[in-house]
Each structure stands twice: as structure tokens, then as C-alpha cells.
Design brief:
Hypothetical protein YwqG fold, six-stranded antiparallel beta sheet, mainly beta, 209 residues, 34% strand, 11% helix, 4 helices
Length: 209
């Protein structure tokens, strides 16, 4: 655990993940049904103005007993109108590992289910030059180099956790007629990070090309 946590403290390396349509190695998935953990958690969205859909879930590289799931507003306009902390409309939930639900309550049918691969540890330079779907640790690779995206997060002691990059979709995740959820962009998760713990992971912001 210590070596992996250094990806968040020293930030010289990161762990990158890809998508695979056929090979399930137990690291999570995009598309398909939400984890069964959410079958009795409808109250999480009861007070929101938007209808929510499951985007993905992945197992934490630092704790194989936990995973993070991300839910997004069904309507694009409800995503783009609130895309920066503290008013980001994307939700990240950390929860115990869970199998995929049999219910399609939160399923986004425009996404063809793919699995998240095993992680590969790389230097920041290698990560910059390697297509990836998830980059965990290291530093964020921003599409728009604007301080206002992260300044409030840093004031509240949040640090970069990982990013999900739409450049990493393989062919077949979306129909060619389907718009990408984030406009060919990227989603950035932040958390309160120390040398031995990660607390309160959230979606800090997302950017589009």
C-alpha cells in the first residue's frame, strides 16, 4: 500500500487503466447496471433536480475492498451547467465492493459495457505519452489550464486523486451517432489525501474539448 500511496503523495508515478470489452479482471466496469450496493439507496438522489444514470465503477488501487462509483445527470445540460466544485453535478460514491445489480434502474443504455483492465504503474512522462482511460495518482493532465477549476478544491484541502479520460474509449463503447457524455473531455476526482489515508473522494470538475 505504501508504494501505491506515493502516487498520491510524491506524484512521480501514476497507475493507468484501460477498457476491455471481454476480459473481466474484477477492477470494475463502465456501462451496464450499477453495483447492487445502490439497489436500496434511492434516497441518494431523491433531493436532486436531475435524473441520474450510472457511468462507471472501479476498485480502489489502495484498498481492494472498496470501489468508487460515478453517477451523472441524464441530461447533458444538467452536467455542463454545474461542472465545477463546490457545485459539480456529478456524484462519486465510495462503497464496499459490489457485484453488478440485476436491476437497470440507473442504466445508461447508450454505453456498451466494458471492463476496466489491470493497472500499470508508469512515470508521469510515460502516462502523458500513453493513451489511458483512468489515470490514478500523479498529477492531473488538464484539457483547459485554468486555475478556477481547482482553486476552491485546494482551499478546502482536496488533492487530485484520478482522472477519467474520454480519449481512452476504445471503439465500440458508444454508437457513432451517440454524443460522448463529456464532450470528448475528462472527469477529475479529488480527495483529502494524507500519507496513510484517502478520505471523501468527490468529482471536483470535468472539462471538455
Amino acid at each position: 500500500m505504501e508504494n501505491k500511496n506515493n502516487k498520491l503523495v510524491e506524484r512521480k508515478e501514476s497507475i493507468i487503466f484501460q477498457l476491455d470489452k471481454n476480459q473481466n479482471v474484477g477492477n470494475g466496469w463502465i456501462g451496464g447496471n450499477a453495483p447492487a450496493y445502490f439497489d436500496d439507496k434511492s434516497e441518494l438522489f431523491n433531493e436532486t433536480e436531475s435524473e441520474y444514470r450510472f457511468y462507471l465503477c472501479f476498485v480502489s488501487p489502495l484498498d481492494n475492498n472498496n470501489m468508487i462509483s460515478i453517477f451523472i445527470p441524464k441530461e447533458y445540460e444538467n452536467r455542463v451547467s454545474k461542472n465545477i466544485y463546490p457545485n459539480c453535478s456529478l456524484y462519486a460514491f465510495e462503497h464496499p465492493n459490489s457485484e453488478e445489480s440485476l436491476a437497470s434502474t440507473y442504466t445508461e443504455f447508450a454505453i456498451v459495457k466494458h471492463y476496466i483492465s489491470e493497472g500499470i504503474i508508469v512515470s508521469e512522462e510515460q502516462a502523458f505519452n500513453t493513451p489511458f482511460f483512468i489515470k490514478y495518482g500523479g498529477n492531473p493532465f488538464l484539457i483547459q489550464e485554468e486555475e478556477y477549476y481547482y482553486i476552491e478544491l485546494e482551499k478546502d484541502t482536496y488533492s487530485f486523486l484520478c482522472q477519467i479520460d474520454e480519449d481512452g474509449y476504445p471503439d465500440g463503447v458508444f454508437d457513432s451517432r451517440t454524443s460522448l457524455p463529456f464532450g470528448f473531455g475528462a472527469v477529475y476526482l479529488y480527495a483529502i489525501v494524507t500519507e496513510d489515508s484517502i478520505k471523501n473522494p468527490i468529482v471536483g470538475y470535468w472539462q471538455y474539448s
